[in-house]
Amino acid sequence: MELFYLMVFGALAAVVAALELSKNNKDRINTSPAFNSFKNNYLIVYSLMMAGDWLQGPYVYYLYSTYGFGKGDIGQLFIAGFGSSMVFGTIVGSLADKQGRRRACVTYCITYILSCITKHSPEYKVLMVGRVLGGIATSLLFSAFESWLVAEHNKRGFEQQWLSLTFSKAIFLGNGLVAIVSGLFGNLLVDSLSLGPVAPFDAAACFLAIGMAIILSSWTENFGDPSENKDLLTQFRGAAIAIASDEKIALLGAIQSLFEGSMYTFVFLWTPALSPNDEEIPHGFIFATFMLASMLGSSLASRLMARSSPRVESYMQIVFVISSASLLLPIVTNFLVAPSKEKDGSISFAVCLQLLGFCTFEACVGIFWPSIMKMRSQYIPEEARSTIMNFFRIPLNIFVCVVLYNVDAFPITIMFGMCSIFLFVASILQRRLMAISDKPKTESWTAMDPEAEPLND
Fold this sequence. Notes:
Blueprint: H1 3-21, H2 33-54, H3 60-66, H4 71-99, H5 101-118, H6 124-141, H7 144-155, H8 160-192, H9 199-218, H10 232-245, H11 247-274, H12 283-305, H13 312-326, H14 329-336, H15 349-379, H16 385-405, H17 412-436, H18 445-448
């Protein structure tokens, strides 16, 4: 393995360790034992849920290819997953608000376990069903758990600032440490123990089952809109009214879609960018390096959110500008550095620069997640939290489906340029959100909907 990869990994690990060990009282939030118990329970469950997700990621494409499917067929399977998340996500989000967030979290576990089971079949139709189930599960993962946490946190009377601590720790563990350990564990199952490409999916199902058992035994139920006579259409209309009538919610949704759309596109682009001549690169090690960079970002976010200044709305403007600049590097290096034609040569200077830029982007991702979670907890009304959060994912999923369908139609530099523009637009929208963030919060969406039934007779 190239020395440069090891140096970047080592440097990031040292910085993350130094940041975590050097925290002082200003960087920490004083909490209560009851909150710490609540937070630790959630972090255990969230880490298990993310382990179930991360274990599958690196092996989905590989598994499909071992079943003999070509790039076109595999692309359709991926589009089915994102399309499913787009079509069914809003429905399951509304059901989570109406039927209960705890129940929705259990549904996530069951749905994803069933999706894992389908991976044992080489039949295309069965795999397609698995992708649809996986898309539904993804929508629940990124809405139901956060909605349950925010509602339960407020119901128990904990301080609002403590919520940011849970968010930052969840990203540090679930999107950082767990991702790295899951990658290494998956590699152990597939390569070292030679259990085959289905083994990580079986392991994922086990982690999901353990997490579901903890949810069933220790979580209480909470709901969004408490009225029992709301149908799905009424919930959709109310959520749409909330978004349309409150500029802060609309801006937040646009910012989230722009950033996450660029992030998911980056997932498809970093491999060809770092191996322009189809060189052999250590994918697993680079992935672990990216996750370390994400941990660095979440560690920085926890420090920033522990202080009253700067506000989240303020520093996120800078984060979006930096992330936009970092994805311009492949374009800049393409013009300024002569491309290498050697397939098996050593790592080029251009690739070194791009790797550093990609690590910077992943650090921005690490800051983004807990920060957007905090802003959502402030601006999205509790009555329809899961519904609105899944509304935000509709443009995201459309965008990713379009990119997947046309991934070979545009040069890689055009794709990176598009992502960079989106991120810069996100910074402009974030600036607007900062300007209006002190405006009074919009009244309950049930009050704004003229057709909604009153909550009390």
